[in-house]
Amino acid sequence: DFMNEVELLFTDLFNYDRSKLYLNKDIILDVNQRYIISQALKRRIKGEPIQYILGKSEFMGLEFKVNCDVFIPRPETEILVETVIKLVSNINYQVSKINILDLGTGSGCIAISLAKFLKNIRVIATDISSEAIEIAQHNAQLNNVNDKIRFIQSDLFPNSEFRIMSNVIIISNPPYIPKDEIQT
After folding, report:
1. Is residue 180 helix, strand or coil?
2. What string of pLDDT tens digits covers the 184 residues of the chain?
3. Of residues 64, 71, 117, 151, which has the active-site annotation?
């Protein structure tokens, strides 16, 4: 059962779970809380996604920091991650590690989820944006997988290292929403 945007905003503000929010309906907001809610609602009315307002998003049951420097992880992308998890889990490999290359990592949601849910993998995640790499590194620390992922600022394939790697799975979910539609 998914929370609506108002529930997300209030549970985040009060650091409550959903049931506690409804059990404490008579709570009175202080000046600072009213200001935060007011500013958040103004941003939302202007069309800013709730995930950017809260500064976080959920993906594969994990929390990720997001802002306007990265796209918000989309639920459909979880299918891509689940497919790779099944693929790697079903491989009867004779090597100690599978190398996964995540091109255009953005928030790092794909690379981090794979690192979280798979053993015997090494992930290299690239993005052309230094801001995105910074957020992805933060998210790797947040999800305790920073030791399994190497982040590289690069436009797609960073160097010749990848030409000699074996047992490689390349995964990418590049932006596919036309610029004209991003605001809506």
Report:
1. helix
2. 567 888 888 888 778 888 887 887 787 888 988 898 899 989 999 989 999 999 999 999 999 999 999 999 999 999 999 999 998 887 755 556 788 999 999 999 999 999 999 988 889 999 999 999 999 999 999 999 999 999 999 887 666 555 656 677 889 988 777 777 766 6
3. 71
Token pair listed for 170: 């390349």
**Cα 23 to Cα 69: distance, rounded to the nearest angstrom:** 37
- The CA-based angle 176-68-183, given to 5 degrees, is 55
Q: Among the options 75, 159, 174, 178, which is catalytic?
A: 174
Q: What pTM was computed for the model? A: 0.84
132 and 105 Cβ atoms separated by less than 8 Å: yes
* C-alpha–C-alpha distance, residues 174 and 176, integer Å: 6
59 labelled catalytic: no
Q: What is the DSSP string of 92-142?
A: --SSS-EEEEEES-TTSHHHHHHHHH-SSEEEEEEES-HHHHHHHHHHHHH
Active-site residue, 174 included: yes
Based on the residue annotation, tell me whether 173 is a catalytic residue of this protein: yes
